[in-house]
Task: structure prediction
Amino acid sequence: MTKPPQSPPAPAANAMWGGRFTAGPDAIMQAINASIGFDRRLYAQDIQGSRAHAAMLAATGILTNKDAEAIGEGLLTVLSEIEAGTFRFRADLEDIHMNVEARLKELIGEPAGRLHTARSRNDQVAVDFRLWVRDQCDAAITGIEGLMRAFLAQADAGADWVMPGFTHLQTAQPVTWGHHMLAYVEMLSRDRSRFADARARMNECPLGAAALAGTSFPIDRHATAAALGFARPTANSLDSVSDRDFALEFLSAAGICAMHLSRFAEELVIWSSAQFRFVRLSDRWTTGSSIMPQKKNPDAAELLRAKLGRILGATVALFTVMKGLPLTYSKDMQEDKEQVFDAADTLMLALAAMTGMVGDMTANRDSLAAAAASGFSTATDLADWLVRALGLPFREAHHVTGTLVARAEALGIDLPGLTLAQMQAVHPGITEGVFTVLGVDNSVASRTSYGGTAPSQVRRQIARWKEVLA
Ligand code: ARG
Result:
């Protein structure tokens, strides 16, 4: 039988806020309340925010320069201790904010207690977390651009290689490899702009909102906003401490991006199979089977296909935390960080893995070409020819072509295998000229509409993207 958890005797009251308490928290209370196990990841942002705050307090005459300098220096010592791994994080100090401040007190004594003037942990955590998420937007943008370059290089190498284009995963029309690769460049560029937009929107500084109402001290919020690289301070103190939209936007952008990665991952799984052989994945991104010696499994692609699940899970979790919370701060919001940390880590790893895989993969030009020519892929070209050369209405051309496809299928051949006589038996007007449109190279070369799959169009887009990503 499992014993219920036993609480050891309660420790002394908290040194930071324990003035009205006679006893410390229950051990289980401490376990559920403490966030230091994960929010220690915010140490750099916490120290950065505190240094900006202290400098502003001195500039406005709220603190003496001497105290502010001692605080600023002391915080740098704390930073170096954390980075050296010598800092002792304490769960009884709950979170990163109080851990840092308590150590500052040990280092510099009394002035440490003046740092928290005109500030609350509510605006402190809001600014720390925003700074962190803002950095992650930048990291996501960098990662996405790397992946865009990998796709672009693939497009450049095979701008005119033909492959089947699919709808319903059924052969539809021949397209070019370059065109398919560039489709992902387009998706990723939207992902990139989503992170850029989210970054611009979150780039307002909540520091100085204090607990929720602002402060009676003559602080300069514009100064701290500028010092921390924000465009401006947030305009409503209540909103400042209760808003987590920026985290939700990050998660949403991450989810859409991961969805795109998942779609290409699925294509890789299909394309690398023995049945397709469109691409060969390098040994660096595949694994073997312990029983089947011939196997080369696309594990990285499979895992990438799955990663969206984690990110979506985090997104749903944070939406659920935030929904229905009355203004302003509630402790529920402490649950924001682990979700975002995990989603960000997942996205960065996924982008790096996909970039490596795309860079390493080799397209099998012959298999692509053979597949492009099969499955009556040029049937639309034939129908279009009937419209253009014979003046048939498209619906009739569609019907004639369908009949020809059925004939070819019955004979076990593809459209270019039919003789002129066999075609004329279906429609007497058909001439020799039809054969010019039945080949896949002609087919793709003819699709010159803007954004179409013709190599000429693809090369134009490649040139544009090279400029954008230069
Ligand atoms: N650890 C807390 C969090 O992550 C910091 C803010 C605490 N504020 C408070 N009023 N208890 O949300």
User: Anything to note?
Assistant: The pocket of arginine is lined by residues 35, 39, 95, 121-122, 125, 329, 331, 333-334 (CB under 6 Å). The first strand starts at residue 162 and ends at 167.
